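agent: user wants the structure for Fructose-1,6-bisphosphatase class 1 from Sulfurospirillum halorespirans DSM 13726. delegating to structure tool.
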Amino acid sequence: MHEIYEAIKRSAIRIREAIEFDDTGYSENINSTGDTQLKLDIKSDLIIEEEFAKVASIKEIVSEEKADKTPLHVNGIYGVGYDPLDGSSLIDVNLSVGSIFGIYEGGYAGANLKAAVYVVYGPRVELVIAEVDVKMYRLNKNGEFVFIQTITLKEKGKLNAPGSTQMCWEPKHKALIDAIFADGYRLRYSGGMVPDLHQILLKGGGLFSYPATSDVPKGKLRMIFEVFPFAFVYEKAGGEAIDGKHRVLDLTPSHPHDTTPCFFGSTTEIKRVRKCYE
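agent: tool returned. relaying tokens verbatim.
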């Protein structure tokens, strides 16, 4: 596992440099889910594939930017699902973005996750690794990731990050979000999954939601690349992640790009979600 973490660190340093200095415009390519790719999406994906190709324990990879799996090492044991540059559409307005990684053994069900990693590219570059617990590292001026802290969620938080198109919310979901704000929770939503979930983790707790809506009834966020890795992080930090009724990590996708509604948060906030959706 250590070799995979080191490959992610090398990738993060290279991607940070690309974000700072490369072309932030759109390419002429369309990815497997119909999104027009930024040139940085393509480059970030290539960087990660190059670094993972050096790691013999990785059997295959599956990227948010590709339609299917890419084989690497026939004797490898791990599959890595990743989003190379989540929230990349925020780069042209200079907001924080990130990379997300799920390390699987035995297929891409949530139950097969062995570790999860994400990187935040903001004013500082921070890397979070969840395995037994959740540890945060920060890139220093020498190009090294130094340990900063172990992250633990409080039982109840103060932040609310409600995603998706509000006009398409179910009435019960709107009532839930309105009630949470009425209880004094503060809005913290940038449109970037990585920085928004990172902020809730570092500020002690709260709720991030991306529900089923009338326009996207199966949710928008992808299980393998986005939802499962962050569900793993939140559980290891003492929180929970559900699809409204069920634990997210009990789900099994039938296709690499399958999506799900999702709610991440402290235990108090997730109890409120369960009550709303029961």
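agent: one observation worth passing along. The domain at 159-277 is CATH 3.40.190.80 (D-Maltodextrin-Binding Protein; domain 2).
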